[in-house]
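TA notes. Do not distribute before section.
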Amino acid sequence: MLKLNRSIDRSLTVLEEIQSNGTCSLALLAEKTGLPKPTLMRICATLENRRWLIRRNSDGCYQLGSAFPNIGGMPEQMDRLVMVAKESIIRLSTQTGLGVDLAVGIGGGRTEIADSTRAFRRHGVYPEVIGYRPSPVFSALGLSFLAVLPAKDRAKALQVLAEKLPREERASLPGVQKLLERNLKRGYAVRADGHWGRAVDYGALPSAIAVPILANTHPIGAINLVWKADHATVDAVVNKHLLLLQKTAAAIGQNYAEIAR
């Protein structure tokens, strides 16, 4: 009988478990596969390098990447943005002490959170946000992205949003253009006062500021700083951290543009 390649067999087992569960922590993979954690770390690092896996910053869990030959893999733009931004958002979070969300544009003026450094014990805000699509008119991420869309694309997106948004968000659309202009002028967007969004599950009411990510002037996503609203005012965070947030967004956009050539 032909001898099988054990390394390939183990790698396929890991992929099967992650595909079956959607996401897997290293501990869960060890439990499911019976493989030691050092072995699993080498396998996952190799698969991540090939973009068959993505390791999430928020909880360290693995999920399928865009290169995995399956329709369930992440879209390529999202996968690429997560890859180039991973170290940057961790560094930004460490330097500021705040949570950081990374969102990618998904069309129609909307964004989806692709990665996050949120940890409840450190930041006190709801951490399970990967895959969530922030409000385009109430969230800092949504507003910062919408503000930098080309005028024609933004007008078209607002038409679509007027038909699809919940009633409360639709009601705010008449004033959105003026708000977007103000965001462009000051260089950042702010989460709407009292907007809970995904925060309702547990944790405190969050505040957030966000800036867009541009690759060669083309909007590809947005990045924010998020914190418990009663821990600091928006002005205090802006004065202390806005420049670093903007520099991080610019660096991510430049790295994205370079690998997308």
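Switch to the second chain here.
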Amino acid sequence: MVKINKIYTKTGDDGTTGLTDGSRVKKYDLRPEAYGTVDELNSILGMIVSLYEDKIRKEKSDDEILNLLKRIQNDLFDLGADLSKPFSTKNDINDLRIIKLQVDFLENFIDKYNKNLEPLNSFVLPGGTVFSSWFHLARTVTRRAERNVCGLLDKEKINKYSLMYLNRLSDLLFVISRMMNDNGQKDVLWKPGQYQQR
């Protein structure tokens, strides 16, 4: 169990941050950049959850997507813990790592939600409804987190499921963004070269 007694420690005043294994790296190092972007994503999902809870309260309904987002937020903290603990000879079987079950969970929802959507014949521009726009924002930050983790993978060993989780999550957020656009009916489609004519 995590216990936090003090908010500021002054240990980062030299531009470094502590990893879960006790080592210290620069705050701009690939590892804190990766889990920091995951934290940014979690904050965006927190905003969506808050807005969505208001919507559900007004409609007096229970919503599967709200519960799904709350679970994903918790899983993202698991992912942050995973990314903040380098692999080493000291690795313990009890280290918190993303597992295949968490990836499969996302895949199941992608398949479930995507089957109700019209197939696309063009790329989708972010927009349509407000909720769709929020999910597109979350999707693009997920992609950035994925790129950061790929950069880390080039330098160090990582848990393969952490990268897979981010990849599937961006797909799920894309599918949900289309659901928020009246199951794709209000999607804003890209029209290549539309404004190139003089």
